[in-house]
Amino acid sequence: MKRKEYQQIIRPLLSDHRYRHSVNVAKEAVRLAKRYGADPEKAETAGILHDIMKDTGPADQLKIMERAGIVLTEVEQNAPKLWHAISGALYVERELGVHDREILDAIRYHTTGRVGMSLLERVIFVADFTSEERDYNGADGMRAAANVSLERAMLEGVTFTLRDLSARQKPIHPDTLATYNWMVLQSAGEKLKKEG
Ligand SMILES: [Fe+2]
Ligand SMILES: [Fe+2]
Question: Any idea which ligand is nearest the CA of 84?
Fold first, then answer.
């Protein structure tokens, strides 16, 4: 399917704001994919679809996950904001017939991150922070980081998420913590290599 068709599919499922965000993330994902050597077409598809379930009610999302036999961990049960990544990847696979694992994983892990994220997963994770309409405190810093390296922007993004969640005393998903440690250790390793 082409971007136009996906746009038509997500339009009725999302608020105006979220729809615009999705189109912008797709655009930004294509830009980052070209810059860092990921597949621009896959980046566009994952970008446009990444928040497909974000405005769907919790009961419907739970139904999708239950039907797929997914058992949520205690942290996940208490973090409904994470659900749209899980239910979204399932919806895209089962209802839209997208079977490309890379695209599905980019959607699945766009909120938590995970250790060993693929290039495409990183592109979507970062594009979600740097899309055109984003205007949170630090958005321009994230955009600058994204133009230096995808990894630097990833680390900024994960740090932002950790800080935001802990400031609001919300549960932190183990995948997010593990991603943070993974990125920090990697960047420490890079520094050591440069200094050595
Ligand atoms: Fe999202
Ligand atoms: Fe998003």
Answer: 1
